[in-house]
Amino acid sequence: TVVFNKLEDAQRIWVKGREFSVERLLGNAYPQDAKRYQNGALGIFRLAPQDYHRFHIPVDGIMCEPKPIDGDYYTVNPMAIRSALDVYGENIRVVVPIDSVRHGRVMVICVGAMMVGSTVITRKAGERVHRAEELGYFKFGGSTILLLFEPGRMRFDDDLVDNSNTVLETLIRVGMSIGHSPDCPPHTPDMRKNNPTNEEKQDAKRRIEGSFAPPTRAKPMAANFS
């Protein structure tokens, strides 16, 4: 995952597609909602083909109608996302709004990718849904889930934000903490995230950005769990 408390940070650091915007991301599914997410928070969760292909509901609320958007099947690996191509705005996807009292309207965007034949949503519009319940699955292969939050409705965990700001994905598993409402204390995670050392961060940064700078000898940074 990479997460950003402000969408502009994601556009500056991670999502480099020249045409990327919330308007293009939501397409003709929920165009009237695009203005809700200006300067909001964005979480990007990338699944590799070997990963668990089911995805889960992020917040308690009422699920609205899932709407598909036709498109392409570009790869969603970091090199593609950080290229000039607007992968998220071009790929086939399903947009699923969830209306939550605590988090406002949360947009779950299920993005298809290379080797993904279809996205299956296993819940129905109008259902009351709860965090961690199944929302759907991909057939077959890895893909990506994007979460859009309205401004001031979500604060991602500091350790995830710090990693994302250094152009580094963090491996997370079902049950781990990713963030919380600013009005609530942080969730005590069931499992701790294994955050990388500074040396590992530098190595990943070189590989993703194509830098040939020599590795640093900085001491490992203590993880900041919230």
TrEMBL record:
UniProt keyword terms in alphabetical order: Decarboxylase, Lyase
EC number: 4.1.1.65
Pfam families, sorted: PS_Dcarbxylase
Annotated stretches, region: Disordered: 179-226
Ranges of compositional bias, category Basic and acidic residues: 189-209
InterPro entries referenced in this protein's UniProt entry, alphabetically: PS_Dcarbxylase (IPR003817)
One GO molecular-function entry: phosphatidylserine decarboxylase activity
Name of the protein described by the UniProt record: Phosphatidylserine decarboxylase
Species per Swiss-Prot/TrEMBL record: Cryomyces antarcticus
Lineage: Eukaryota, Fungi, Dikarya, Ascomycota, Pezizomycotina
